[in-house]
Specification:
This protein is mostly helical and about 70 residues long. It contains three helices and no strands. The longest helix has 14 residues.
Length: about 70
């Protein structure tokens, strides 16, 4: 069974890969919760999972680390 963070991670990854979210754009948890109608905790975990999996590449700050995960 997929966890909430896995669902958030897969949605985020999919949206970046299909161009719905620009790879270099800054992510706001409040924007993600509005877009996906989900909780901030779920989206934060998804972003962290995305960055930890290497999805952020060398631009991890643009994906929500380093204090950019604000609302």
């Amino acid at each position: 069974k997929e966890t909430d963070s896995s669902v958030a991670y897969l949605r985020l990854r999919g949206d970046i890969l299909d161009g719905s979210i620009e790879p270099s754009s800054k992510l706001s948890i409040s924007q993600l919760t509005g877009k996906y109608e989900s909780s901030a905790e779920m989206e934060e975990r998804g972003v962290v999972e995305f960055v930890e999996s290497g999805g952020g590449g060398t631009h991890s700050n643009k994906y929500g680390t380093g204090g950019c995960m604000g609302t």
